[in-house]
Amino acid sequence: MAFVILREGTKQAVQDVGGEDAACEILRRHVGSEIGPIAKPKRVLLVTELPKTRSGKIMRRLLRDVAENRQVGDTQTLADASVMDLIQKGLSGKR
Q1: Over 90: is that where the pLDDT of 3 sits?
Q2: pLDDT tens-digit map of 9-47
Q3: Closest residue by Cα to residue 46 from 81, 79, 93, 78
Q4: What is the DSSP string of 32-72?
Q5: Contact (Cβ atoms closer than 8 angstroms) between residue 6 and residue 24
């Protein structure tokens, strides 16, 4: 799974290609062509922010838990715990 934060000003480009689902499929194909088919993620999720500690490190462990549908571990060290709720809603399709 790939968690993607789009750059500023790309909202119009996403709409031009047909919405978020189409943009995610384009990103999947791009990874497959640039890196190789084995690296192509099964799913791409557009997010506004990633879970980070107060020092700015990305909590990959929490992203792995969410992607593998496991109970999310300790979130006490997160700078903003609401980010995990947004990511979980995005995975379940509740936008």
Answers
A1: yes
A2: 887 788 888 888 888 999 999 999 999 999 999 999 988
A3: 93
A4: HHHT-GGG--S-EEE-S---BBTTS-B-HHHHHHHHTTPPP
A5: no
CB 10 within 8 Å of CB 17 = no
- pTM for the model stands at 0.79
Determine the Cα–Cα distance for residues 68 and 54; give it in Å rounded to an integer. Answer: 25
Q: Which residues pair with 4 in a beta bridge?
A: 46
Q: Is the pLDDT of residue 72 over 70?
A: yes
SS3 3: strand
Cα–Cα distance measured from residue 87 to residue 90, given in angstroms and rounded to the nearest whole number: 5
Average pLDDT value for residue range 81-93 = 82
Helix (H) or strand (E) holding 30: helix 20-34
